[in-house]
Amino acid sequence: MTAPLTPPHQPPHDPAWPPPPPPPLGPAGDPITAAEVLRGAVVTGVSAVVGAVLGLLWLWLAPRVLLISDGKGVYLRDSEGESAIGADGTFVLLALAFGAVAALVVFLWRREGGVPLVLGLALGGVLGSLLAWGVGTYFGPARDVVAHAKSVGPNVVFEAPLELNMAAAAMLAWPLAAMIVHLALTALFGPRDPEPEYWGPQQAQPGPKSL
């Protein structure tokens, strides 16, 4: 008794069975190239620089917390005001808008996406938010409240320093908005992978009829 020449897990050698197709290649399986890494770095750098614009807008639009001094201490002029919360809300709303616009620009630039671009959007959003925070607080009202109160004198209203009370959450608004919007745009309008070719038994072609 001899062993079969054709293994049981392979189809017999038949012209109706073509050779197995090569493994599919696509964006998901291709290695990350140096050009893609460079593009991700460009997205990171541009996003970080644009953070300065966010900081200036925050400084311009955020509501102010007003203080007053009686010569012995510094007090809130309106103890029931919500200006401090309004400053945080203004920063978050602006950061969400900047993240959405950044994702749209990157998608229009490179529709096929890629891991480096997404990482560039996320890292650039964090760096841009940090720069915006620094710009807003640096160019805003003086940080030394006591010295500022002494310089303006008693019973004179002055502005408190611009601050973020929920800084950790505010720093995530831009990158989260950028990644979500970019993912949605890629899923809706991004290029589609080609359909895999059918591999299986081919239907026999009819031959010439004999007379």
Automatic annotation (TrEMBL):
It comes from the Bacteria. Keywords: Membrane, Transmembrane, Transmembrane helix. Residues 1-30 are annotated as: Disordered. The chain crosses the membrane at residues 41-61, 91-109, 116-135, 166-189. Residues 1-26 have a biased composition (Pro residues). This is ABC transporter permease.
